[in-house]
Amino acid sequence: MMKDEGLEPDVVTYGIVINAYCKSKKYDEALEIFRGAILAKNLKPSPHIYCSLIHGLGTEKRLNEAIDFFEQSKISGFVPELPTYNALVGVYCWSEMV
């Protein structure tokens, strides 16, 4: 739709879509947007995007992927904040590793 109007989605737009996919439990679609749109276009993901993916993948008990995104967020230069740590703790709880 946006592209039909000559508008190019930005990282905020993609973040909203990723968050919506995660809330709808469509994690593979969220990952497809992350990899196929954000990374492919060299956009810098926001902490919010990482937190959405960590939380979403954690609820699905996809522990290794969630932890990978936590590590990627730190490598990207983001200092983890309270929501990110909350999501990470949730990942361990949902995976029953606590």
TrEMBL record:
NCBIfam families attached to this UniProt entry: PPR
Record-stated family: Belongs to the PPR family. P subfamily.
Protein known as: Pentatricopeptide repeat-containing protein
A GO cellular-component term linked to this record: chloroplast
Gene Ontology terms: biological process: chloroplast-nucleus signaling pathway; mitochondria-nucleus signaling pathway
PANTHER family attached to this UniProt entry: PENTATRICOPEPTIDE REPEAT-CONTAINING PROTEIN GUN1, CHLOROPLASTIC (PTHR47936:SF1), PPR_LONG DOMAIN-CONTAINING PROTEIN (PTHR47936)
Alphabetical UniProt keywords: Repeat
Pfam families xref list: PPR_1, PPR_3
Keyword Repeat attributed: yes
Protein origin, superkingdom: Eukaryota
Start-end of each PPR repeat: 10-45, 46-80
